[in-house]
Amino acid sequence: MAEKLVVIGAGMASGRMLEELFATAPGAHEVTLFGAEPRGNYNRIMLSPVLSGEKTYDEIVTHDAAWYAANGVTCRFGEPVTGIDRARRVVVSATGETPYDRLVIATGSAPFIIPVPGHALPGVLTYRDLDDTEAMIAAAAKPGARAVVIGGGLLGLEAAAGLRLRGMEVTVLHLMPHLMERQLDPAAGYLLQKELETRGIRIHTRANTHEIVGRERVEAVRLDDGTEYPADIVVMAVGIRPDTGLAKAAGLACGRGLHVDDRMITSDGSILAVGECVEHRGQCYGLVAPLYEMAKVAAKTLAGEPAEYAGSVTSTKLKVTGVDLFSAGDFAEGDDREEIVFRDPARGVYKRLVIRDQRIIGAVMYGDTADGAWFFGLLKDAADIAEMRDTLIFGPAYAGGAPLDPMAAVAALPDEAEICGCNGVCKSTITEAIAGGAGSLDAVRAGTRASASCGSCTGLVEQLLAASLGDAYAAPAARPVCGCTDLTHEDVRRLIKARALKSMPAVMQECGWRTSCGCHVCRPALNYYLLADWPLDYADDPQSRFVNERNHANIQKDGTYSVVPRMWGGITTPGELRAIADAAEKFAVPTVKVTGGQRIDLLGVAKEDLPAIWADLNAAGLVSGHAYAKGLRTVKTCVGTDHCRFGTQDSTGLGVAIEKRMWGAWTPHKVKMAVSGCPRNCAEATCKDVGVICVDSGFEVGVAGAAGMDLRETEPLGKTATAAEAIELIVAFVQLYREQAKYLDRPYKWVAKVGLDWVREQVVDDLENRRALVARFDLSQRVFQKDPWAERATPETEARWRPLADLTLEAAE
Amino acid sequence: MSGWIDIGALADIPVRGARVIRTPAGCVAVFRTAGDEVFALDDRCPHRGGPLSEGIVHGRSVTCPLHNRVFAFETGAAERPEEGRVATYPARIEGGRVLIDAAHLARRTAA
Ligand code: SRM
Ligand SMILES: Cc1cc2nc3c(=O)[nH]c(=O)nc-3n(C[C@H](O)[C@H](O)[C@H](O)COP(=O)(O)OP(=O)(O)OC[C@H]3O[C@@H](n4cnc5c(N)ncnc54)[C@H](O)[C@@H]3O)c2cc1C
Ligand code: SF4
Ligand code: FES
């Protein structure tokens, strides 16, 4: 019979332990997992990117409902364990008692709160879990809000950087003379402080907090020297304490943490413990790498296999985008130690190795941490560095002689070199996985866990892939937007929203563009994202648009333009046709063609003539057909109930109504629609971005069809009884596409990425969300639904559309 | 024709944009960069004649609107790996006006 295993704490250590356990002894345990947080296991260390807006919570979930179900784990999230009765082998929680054969305590640690006056005021936060993170994000949403972060260690600085990126005014108070004093020496601490200050974070070192001031809630923080910093929130990040409350109450042996032996067993043989709550050989840990090692050992112990944990050497990286620092080991000065220092002030680079008996015992690097993994390997192996001492500081590339490029440096790493610090994955594990068929970053992650936690080794893993596979390595699917940045379209869209970036310079600055004003690839994309996300704040930039959208006509191969007026749903009148005929004659249009989109194209118009031909067409009530736009193109219709003996609904009327509601909207790529009056589908609605088929009982709305370079049939989005509801559904779908898709992805490409199910959840099932999407679309239309021809059929545009000067006459003189 | 000719106000050329001037030997595109420099190049892409004046201007280059070749303003050369070059003409700004070197334009006409 399966052993009853109860686990207290759904954190990083227990999640990893369960994975190891199910892999080692599948089906041997019937697991109940208690978590005080109302959610399952997630990657806690990635809360910082969530705070800064670089990731979403969904992206950091490590185990989802499907995983628990597949492994038969009974989840009791949001239900803290309040007691352990060791004699009866039960744990106590709100719903009663749960019996165990064996118990694992993985309660992590609790943030330490300095007991100054005012520490209990609303607005004093800690930084430990998602709720804390969300509280900070909420506080940052208030314009002009101020945060004081107490504690200039890893957590405090990640909190400060995230809050700053969200637009808060941030002050960091640090007791010691320099930041991160446990991981950095003063020189690196200084460089770090300088860097954070240039990002607009105020840093006050040697700051002794006297009192948190406030009546109803936090108002300010006062220091011993009387300095006062106003604050809307105070984030306490002064340290953590192993959470041993339960263990102590149950009479388990505890020191600073809960005592365990090398097999992770506590003073009670049927109780194990892993994670930050543990004290092992006098040592408590606050980073994930040791916890993962503990998790592995605990899983083996539970499975009845021999395993021993011998303690860990840890290294630290700060996860603040653009700040490169690395530290490991012991770097205090001492008589028995020597040091090697390298500085490049111009680049802000600082590297220091501390050496004892020809072995590296500590390393601190700032500004250029590429060799961190190599030094850390030498440190952990206690390798003798006497031979390479002279060039040691220049890293592995130099160790053999001439400097090499980064690819060669990675190739030169020894097999045992640790690549992923979080998961303790060494180079050979990765190269073996690659040789075994893992040809992508995701495959390596899945197979080895390398780069699956904090992600700072992703670059190294990619270099290994490239070095091992050569040309066969198709660089990761997530391609950067262009050569100006390493960020993907998705990253950029998220950052624009999360950091409320409302202008092109803001995006380029905050996202670290490498070029001064972008290029023809990124600028149109950014221009679109900005106007889609901030219709009221952002001013469209014509110079960031392709020629067609700038000139509101399609450029032809000979530099002339084509002009396509709108014909709502393909319906026209003798008057309109006459106006088109007149314009064609007046401007000597060489070709008049019926398009594939049920309207008429006037091809071969000179640029200078555009404003005048627009004026003539406008006078007859014709407006731009946006045949050139990444926007709504045509809504094709069939004759429907008006004339057709098979028509079931007014397909023409619906097509016209949709086109009238949606024309002028800019979208990531062009959007074409059609409405057919019955399933005979004469409007070809089943190969459009959005297509409606009318049936007796209502309207079948399909999406994500295509009939260009790819041929796709639409997939059903939903069915509605009324035309009005069909329109709402379509508007919501298009708005979701406008907000989410990558520039130049047609709806079918975007839907393939996010999944139609998700789209349905957003626009079909969630009515409130549907309404909100429609409201946002309508708001945007208030700004953008204007005929661009009418706006430009003016003498002023005519002048701008003509040459600046005509020198042909002068030359003739 | 000699010396510098005034072809118009700087303000009439959009920032990161261009205007054309008509000459007996075809159009010349006059570009204005984000940093308010001006450059004059033939308005005909050596690939298939695309009007460079309608391209997107970035840094000191323009991308042809027809098939995306990129040309450097200083040299008129296409960015590698593409080949080809367009003629460039001296242009400068004086008191808010854009001037172009007529001698060079004349030489072009003669050629
Ligand atoms: C005029 C027209 C052809 C015609 O004479 O009928 C046309 C002309 C062009 N199409 Fe089209 N397409 C026209 C209907 C279509 C259709 C049929 C339809 O809309 O029912 C399709 C297939 C349906 C679809 O889009 O899924 C179509 C698929 C494309 C594609 C491929 C899109 C794709 O995602 O695969 C392109 C290329 C692109 O957009 O990147 C394209 C691009 C073009 C461009 C804009 C090429 C360019 O960038 O210069 C052509 C502009 C010519 C001009 O100056 O007017 N055209 N094009 C049609 C205008 C319809 C209208 O009234 O607005
Ligand atoms: C913002 C942030 C950034 C970090 N960045 C890094 C980093 O870059 N690198 C790194 O190595 N480490 C980092 N850490 C540290 C790392 O997250 C921890 O070392 C790790 O999460 C500890 O794992 P754990 O399972 O021991 O504890 P936790 O992950 O904290 O899990 C313990 C869980 O137990 C629950 N619990 C407690 N008591 C009970 C109870 N009585 N009943 C039920 N459930 C209970 C808690 O609610 C919690 O969910 C970071 C931590 C934070 C907060
Ligand atoms: S199919 Fe479309 S893009 Fe191709 S030549 Fe015809 S009009 Fe141009
Ligand atoms: S005409 Fe310029 S790139 Fe083709």
UniProtKB/TrEMBL annotation, chain A:
Residues 4-283 form the FAD/NAD(P)-binding domain. Residues 419-466, 481-530 form the BFD-like [2Fe-2S]-binding domain. Keywords: 2Fe-2S, 4Fe-4S, FAD, Flavoprotein, Heme, Iron, Iron-sulfur, Metal-binding, Nitrate assimilation, Oxidoreductase. Residues 556-620 form the Nitrite/Sulfite reductase ferredoxin-like domain. Pathway: Nitrogen metabolism; nitrate reduction (assimilation). Pfam families: Fer2_BFD, NIR_SIR, NIR_SIR_ferr, Pyr_redox_2, Rubredoxin_C. Residues 629-769 form the Nitrite/sulphite reductase 4Fe-4S domain. InterPro entries: BFD-like_2Fe2S-bd_dom, BFD-like_2Fe2S-bd_dom_sf, FAD/NAD-bd_sf, FAD/NAD-binding_dom, FAD/NAD-linked_Rdtase_dimer_sf, NasD-like, NiRdtase/SiRdtase_haem-b_fer, Nit/Sulf_reduc_fer-like_dom_sf. It comes from the Bacteria. Residues 315-380 form the NADH-rubredoxin oxidoreductase C-terminal domain. PANTHER family: NITRITE REDUCTASE (NADH) LARGE SUBUNIT. NCBIfam families: nitri_red_nirB. This is Nitrite reductase large subunit NirB. The lineage of its organism: Bacteria, Pseudomonadati, Pseudomonadota, Alphaproteobacteria, Rhodobacterales. The gene is nirB.
From TrEMBL, chain B:
Gene3D superfamilies: Rieske [2Fe-2S] iron-sulphur domain (2.102.10.10). The keyword Metal-binding applies. It comes from the Bacteria. The keyword Iron-sulfur applies. Signal peptide: none annotated. SUPFAM superfamilies: ISP domain. Residues 5-100 form the Rieske domain. InterPro entries: Rieske-like_NirD, Rieske_2Fe-2S, Rieske_2Fe-2S_sf. Keywords: 2Fe-2S, Iron, Iron-sulfur, Metal-binding, Nitrate assimilation, Oxidoreductase. CDD domains: Rieske_NirD_small_Bacillus. This is Nitrite reductase small subunit NirD. It comes from Paralimibaculum aggregatum. The gene is nirD.
